[in-house]
Amino acid sequence: MTRQWTPGETDDDLQAIARTERLVVALDFDGTASPLVPDPMAARALPEVATQVARLAAMPNTVVAYVSGRSLHDLRIITEHDDDSVIVLAGSHGAQYWFPGEGEADATGEATEEGAREALWDAARPIIERYEGAEFEPKTFGMGVHTRRADRDVEKQVFAEIDALVAERFPHWRRRAGHRVLEFSSRTEGKDTAMAALRQKFDATGILFAGDDVTDEDGIRVLGAGDLGVRVGPGESHAALRVENPQQMAQLLEALADERAAAQE
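Structure for Trehalose 6-phosphate phosphatase, as requested:
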C-alpha cells in the first residue's frame, strides 16, 4: 500500500535507501522534477529540485538519472544538460541513454522500419492541426499528441482519431497514455527497461525511482527489496511512498541527501 510521506518525520524506508552502498536516484521529469506546463518544451526542473539533484550527484557512490518518455534530444534541452554534466539521462522510456564521461550510448534493439516514423508524422499532423489546443510532438521512435492547452472534449476526439490511424497503419506500435498526452512508439522499451539498465550499469544496491504518471508505474513495478518507489501526486501506484507534487518531491530529495550525507560521515 502506498502511504503519504510527511516532511520532517523520520521514515524508515527513506533511511534505508539512503544508507544503501551504491545508490541510483532515478527521477521522471515532467510532473516530478518539473510542474506540468502548457508548453512541453518550456518545462524546467524546480530550482529546489535542481539543488538537491546536484547535491546528491556530488556524493560518493551516488548516481542521479532523469528517466523520461521524452526523446533524448528534447530531454537534454529541458534538463538544461550539457556535455560536462554528471547527470545520467534515459530518454524514450529507456530506449536511449546518455552517460557522464561517455556521452550518448549506441542504440540497441530493433530499428524502426525505414520511413515508418515519417509516414506516421505525415498522416497524424493534419489530424492534430484540426483540433484547437492539440500539439504534435515528434519523437525519435514515434510521436506524441499533447492536449494540455485543449479542453477534454477536444482531447477525446483527437485521441480517438489518432488511435484509429495507428490501429490501421501501425497496429504493432506501442501505445502509452499519460497526463494529457498520447504516445506511440515503434520500440517496446518501458521504464522497467531503464531500471534494469541503470542497475546493471552502476551495479546499484538500491534504486529510488519517482514518477507521477501511468508510464512510471512500469519502472516502479519492477523495483525490489532494497529499492524505493515514490509516486508524485494522485493515482493508483505500486510505490511505497507518495508525495503531493514536485515541490514536496524536492523536500524528499533534501531529506534523502541529509540522510545519505550523515550515513557517509
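The longest strand covers residues 62-67.
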